[in-house]
Amino acid sequence: MRLAFCGNDNASAYNISAGVLRNVCFVDALNLVPHVFLLFITFPILFIGWGSQSSKVQIHHNTWLHFPGHNLRWILTFTLLFVHVCEIAEGIVSDTQMKSRHLHLFLPAIMGFVAATVSIVYYHNIETSNFPKLLLALFLYWIMAFVTKTIKLVRYCQDGVPFSQLRFCITGIMVILYGLLMAVEINVIRVRRYVFFMNPQKVKPPEDLQDLGVRFLQPFVNLLSKATYWWMNTLIISAHKKPVDLKAIGKLPIAMRALTNYVCLKEAYEEQKVKDPSNSYLSSEEFLRNVYVLAVLLFLALILQRTFLQASYYVTTETGINLRGALLAMIYNKILRLSTSNLSMGEMTLGQINNLVAIETNQLMWFLFLCPNLWAMPVQIIMGVILLYNLLGVSALVGAAVIVLLAPIQYFIATKLAEAQKSTLDYSTERLKKTNEILKGIKLLKLYAWEHIFCTSVEETRMKELTSLKTFALHTSLSIFMNAAIPIAAVLATFVTYAYTNDKPLQPAQAFASLSLFHILVTPLFLLSTVVRFAVKAIVSVQKLNEFLLSDEIGDDSWRGGDSSVAYESCKKHTGLHTKAINRRQPLRYQLESYEQPTRKQTRPVETDDIAIKVTNGYFSWGSGLATLSNINIRIPTGQMTMIVGQVGCGKSSLLLAILGEMQTLEGKVHWSKLPGRQMNTEGYVSVNETEPSFEASRSRNRYSVAYAAQKPWLLNATVEENIIFGSPFNKQRYKAVTDACSLQPDIDLLPFGDQTEIGERGINLSGGQRQRICVARALYQNTNIVFLDDPFSALDIHLSDHLMQEGILKFLQEDKRTLVLVTHKLQYLPHADWIIAMKDGMVLREGTLKDIQNKDIELYEHWKTLMNRQDQELEKDMEADQATLERKTLRRAMYPRESKSQLEDEDEEEEEEEDEDDNMSTVLRLRTKMPWKTCWRYLTSGGFFLLFLMIFSKLLKHSVIVAIDYWLATWTSMDNTNEVGNTDEVTSTNKTYHVAVFSILSGAGIVLCLITSLTVEWMGLTAAKNLHHNLLNKIILGPIRFFDMTPLGLILNRFSADTNIIDQHIPPTLESLTRSTLLCLSAIGMISYATPWFLVALVPLGIAFYFIQKYFRVASKDLQELDDSTQLPLLCHFSETAEGLTTIRAFRHEARFKQRMLELTDTNNIAYLFLSAANRWLEVRTDYLGACIVLTAAVTSITEGPNSGFVGLGLLYALTITNYLNWVVRNLADLEVQMGAVKKVHSFLNMESENYDGYLDPSQVPKDWPQEGEIKIENLCVRYENNLKPVLKHVKAYIKPGQKVGICGRTGSGKSSLSLAFFRMVDIFDGRIVIDGIDISKLPLHTLRSRLSIILQDPILFSGSIRFNLDPECKCTDDRLWEALEIAQLKNMVKSLPGGLDAMVTEGGENFSVGQRQLFCLARAFVRKSSILIMDEATASIDMATENILQKVVMTAFADRTVVTIAHRVHTILTADLVIVMKRGNILEYDTPENLLSQEDGIFASFVRADM
Predict the structure, then answer these.
(1) Which has more pLDDT, 1278 or 603?
(2) Which residues 6+ apart lie within 8 Å of 1008 measured at CB?
(3) Which of 1347, 1333, 1319, 1342 is nearest to 1424 (CA)?
(4) Would you say 545 and 327 are in contact if contact means Cβ atoms under 8 Å apart?
(5) Mean of the pLDDT values across residues 547-576?
(6) pLDDT at 289
């Protein structure tokens, strides 16, 4: 057949006698002109690359959309394309009814389609390269197309073509569309004035796009890219080559940053705008009767529905993230204002704050994600029921009723789930608290052999947690069961009713349409219950947040000048400007430098008034209403040193905090003298406003900011240098002077990266003294007028103290004329003080200079004198001795490289054998794309093989039954169809009964199996979780002490918190969901292939596409998940760090800087999360489109084959379900891969070496009262911390007689503490031995050995619980014994005054007692254990002299008959000993009685004593 444009079956086709425009064919040809014109003009431009020339504005991303009407143009073009498709289809369908081919019916339409596609590509290129002049071509095209289409329409009207004709409708719509596009083009000319105007409009890209750092382009790309997340491709594909890091994802666009949203939240703008575009189109009946047309329409409908769905997901995600950022900023602001008593009295524990940050904000965010369902779901349900009624009549309502009646049960289960989850959370919080205490006090627990007591208490809590997890699992499985069973039950009810109420047999069309409707109905119902549950949770979260935001704040200490909230408040007035200012990432210190240097000199107060701070008639309390400090009248002279002295617990630290405004003022006032220098400050403000409007105002050198070093050192998770300069400008000389004064340089030299070493979670990897010196250094370094030091000498030995006093305080601070307030127990420094405040029992005993007190209160002066018992001689600047002091404890830490770092890194590596391979690209890629099957297997088997088998078997059975149900339905309906003709009624009724019976039996079986499978999965998950946690806890508790020195506490805790939580609650549902969706997809593909075997051919390309999508996605998703987790950790840490160091931050007035840091951390975490959800959208869009393709191929293949209609229905039904489950398969795979990481991390700890607890002797062979005498022989002892490290004790020999008092002294790092640890076998004794009372300790079981000796450690550790529990966790002693111990430790009266006496509670870490009191409790604890050997490891370091003297007496009296080994900080504590051992570098240098050693003038001990006088 020859082809001809107008067809060759009609001679009059080319006849134009009635006028050119009356000829249909000519009009169609005319319609070709504009399209051809456009193609001719644009192709050269596109290919020559006119469009590729760069724009005038240098811009990072070529995604800048700046022509007005941009989105409208895309929508119109897409509509145009759709109409073109209809036109093509209509032309082809009409053409098939002609005798010969009529090209004019569809060729112009095809060209139009091509031209429309080219127009949008062309437009996109012009817009991104900013060449508006080239838009003229499009303008001309729209005009021509509009004119030619209008001619065609007019021609149809003249010919009287009826409106119902599809061709007429299509042409009409096209005219409208071309008209609108023309209008859009005119508007661009009007706004941008690029032609016909003299002055074209200049435009600048938005700030985000000029910033190279912003990589999140969703808000800035065109519609198509927005809908399909095309811009994500580069990221996801590059993830395959190298891991995604924070640099790759850049930073948040301004509109999404926490600060912007915080300001909005504060203003309480919460207008939610979610618009859903709707589409309607006219159609003509014959056209729609064409099956292929229906298949294509089904495909398009799916694509549209999915695209809108993903878009709505994105909108909710973005809103949720914005809300979370704003909430975090709000919580943080509140934390900075929390009253201190709230934290220390335990009303608001750190745990609660962490929960608010980690859990409640996320709950609210999740609620926002799901909340559109609250109104979308009811609509969906109502529509579904109406459609069902249309199909099946009354019987549909029966099925719907089943669904609706079972839905409340779903809701009931959901609420129960929430309750179970809450109780689980409570238990796990409690378990974590206990675990945390164990890990913090692990050294003490091991030394006292108490680890099992604490371990069982954790196990008890864990059992409770598991019980509530069991209920949780039960309800989860019920919920999954309901989800699977409801549709089966509904379908059963409906079809049985239909079979018995209707005369007509069931048609396949009805059956399968209603089946898919039931499936559609179930999802919203299930989701609705989830959403309602989340809504309930969100309400609870809001209440918790509200409660927190309303809790007590500290008094508004406006008298200390400079409102710290200035940064945010000024922000509110004119948002735009300030958010920009704050968000610039330039570090604050540069801006500080810019204006602080010149004004610094003037800030020194002119000495008019010599009082810096004055307290009059002050009564202060810790929030209980009882005054802790009463009748305080003191003054603190400017530029001088004030010392506050007094016994332990007399309120010295409280006085400092009261002055800083941390306590509640019941009465009286604190005056900070108004220093002159006002003018300077205003100038300061002006210069500030030029550099950084909102932030710096509050950061200007505040006249009342105080450098404060707390008694309990508080360090940031940052480098040593950052901890010392603490946000001030870095000044090299000053920094050096400060580190020298605090003798930190040698410590710094020993750290692996010098002062750039990170000091981890709470500065774990430093000793107490080092942490304290860093805190003091921070206070000295700050450029403030006033310095508060709270007992800075407590953890330092005599050399360090003296050096700090001379260099740091007398020299550095005095030269600077800074006002210093010093709390101390070291009375020998009193002569240096310009002013002394002596306190007793919360009152001021005396105030004045030393001279005043000497004259007025001779008794007190004498008392001090006896305490000092050695007058303070000027320190001989004996540099050698001083250098020696600096052989730090850190030597040990430096001797072993920082393995913890490498340990961390190894953890993420794959299994060991893979680590050995070369690190070339291919292996890395393989590792990154491989699923961790080995870990999965470990997890599955840790639940037990029986359960594993049961799970797999029941799953397979369940899915086969579900397929069987649908299959049976197909055969039943198809059979009824064929049997219709000439059959008697009886046959039909028996048939009916038989079919219904089989159908019911299958459905029943399906429902039961659903229950069984969901139960087995959860049960298996629980068993696995139980076993893993149990093994982990026991492994860790028995681990060697080295392990705890090496591994940061946070890391171990993470295994117990985050990882255990994942194993408990996340893996089972993921596993369930994964197996379910995979099996559903497989059964669907099987069913379709069975119905239409040709489908298998189409499956190959689809399968390949799917494989690559999931492969790329999994890698990128894993990276993004890890980024999300790793950025969340610093955020949570920052919150808890702030809560811990509140007093310090507030004293320094650094709130603004910390807020800024918090905003940065929040934004970093949010961008990671945003990218993660964008990646999920990317995946879902692609899998949804794949699903749509599957539906299309299934439909088309079944049409062409045209087999049994029942099976076509079945195939289509399954094809439609696939779209839902494909992305679940990939998402669950990716999730499982990440979650298996938790199992892997737990396993990495399970491979750790344990301490060897069994000795050669059976515990029964050891005498009950061993060691009775307390005789110790140390024979040639060599000790190291681990077998690959150098020895710390080398061939030490000593003999200690029973009952002797032995003192061991030596510089830091000389091996004193290692010796004490050797008695307990905490270190590796690799040569020599220690014999106690005739038994070699290496032969004893560890538990026996450690439970028979006593030790008092340097850091006092108390556990939360009663005082009784702290003294005697094993509950072996009588009350009298405990009281006796308390009396010996001078604590009896204090404990008696507490409510409950011995049962009074100790808060976490003993925070409700002062450090000195805690140390005394530890002494009492050692007395309670009546062992004949007591070891005191620098136990008197943090005690005042009075208490220390008490201690000395006690050791002499209460311990007269026991052997006491004292490791001394201060040499005078061992002057009364029977034997002194001087150590250096792991060797014994001197070994004799103190008298003999003192007589050797040049001996080391003698030089120590001289230095200590």
Answers:
(1) 1278
(2) none
(3) 1347
(4) yes
(5) 50
(6) 67
1268 closest CA partner among 1428, 1388, 1398, 1158: 1428
When pLDDT is averaged across residues 829-848 and rounded to a whole number, the result is 88
List, for residues 1310-1323, the tens digit of each pLDDT value.
788 788 888 888 88
- Rounded-to-integer distance, Cα 903 and Cα 313, Å: 40
Task: Please name the residues in contact with 888: beta carbons below 8 A apart, sequence gap of 6 or more.
Answer: 746, 747, 750, 770, 1308, 1309
* C-alpha dihedral (811, 812, 816, 817), degrees to nearest 10: -50
- 126's enclosing H/E stretch is helix 103-129
Q: Which residue has the tokens 């059975």?
A: 957
Output the pLDDT for position 517. Answer: 84
Order of strands across the sheet that contains 1475-1480: 1350-1352, 1429-1433, 1459-1463, 1301-1306, 1475-1480, 1483-1488
> Element (H or E) spanning 344, and its range?
helix 340-344
Structure tokens, 36: 């051809």
Distance, in Å, from the CA atom of 234 to the CA atom of 948, rounded to the nearest integer, reads 40
CA quadruple 88, 92, 94, 99: dihedral sign: positive
- Mark residue 999 as left, alpha or beta (left: phi above 0; alpha: psi -120 to 50; beta: remaining): alpha
Q: Alpha-carbon torsion 797, 799, 800, 806, what sign?
A: positive
Calculated CA dihedral for residues 1244, 1245, 1248, 1254, nearest 10 degrees: -150
Phi–psi pair at 1298, nearest 5 degrees: -55, 135
* Residue owning tokens 């205003």: 682
Q: For the segment 352-389, what is each residue's pLDDT rounded down to a tens digit?
A: 777 788 888 888 888 888 888 888 888 888 888 888 88
Compute φ and ψ for 581, nearest 5 degrees. Answer: -60, -45
Mention every residue, 6+ apart, whose C-beta is less than 8 A from residue 1486.
Answer: 1476, 1477, 1478, 1493, 1496, 1499, 1500, 1501
Fill in the amino acid letter for 379.
V
Instruction: Locate 483 and state its tokens.
Output: 């989800």
Please, are residues 829 and 643 in contact by the beta-carbon 8 Å criterion? Answer: yes
| Band of residue 585 on the pLDDT scale cut at 50, 70, 90 | very low
- pLDDT above 60 for 283: no
Give the Cα separation of 1095 and 766 in Å (integer): 67
What per-residue confidence (pLDDT) applies to 765?
A: 58
pLDDT at 582 over 50: no
**CA distance linking residue 171 with residue 906, whole number of Å:** 67
Reported as a pLDDT band with limits 50, 70 and 90, residue 586 is very low
pLDDT, tens digit (0-9, with 9 covering 90-100), for 37-52 = 888 888 887 777 644 4
Q: How far apart are CA 792 and CA 821, in angstroms?
A: 11
Q: Which residue blocks in 1149-1255 are alpha helix, DSSP H?
A: 1151-1201, 1205-1246
Q: What pLDDT band is residue 1267 in, cutting at 50, 70 and 90?
A: confident
For strands 1459-1463 and 1429-1433, give the pairing. Answer: parallel
* Residue-level length of the chain: 1509
The 10 Å Cβ neighbour count of residue 1492 is 13
Closest CA to 1089 of 1215, 993, 1176: 1215
Q: Which residues of 65-139 form beta strands (DSSP E)?
A: none
Residue 397 has pLDDT above 80, yes or no: yes
C-alpha span between 1189 and 1210 (Å, rounded): 17
* Token pair 């779903």: residue: 410
**Mean pLDDT for the stretch of residues 443-454:** 86
- Of 875, 868, 748, nearest to 805 (Cα)? 875
Rg (CA), the chain: 40
What predicted TM-score, i.e. pTM, was given to this entire model?
0.73
| Range with lowest mean pLDDT among 892-906, 1001-1015, 1202-1216 | 892-906
Does 1289 score more than 50 pLDDT? yes
| Dihedral sign for Cα atoms in the order 626, 631, 635, 636 | negative
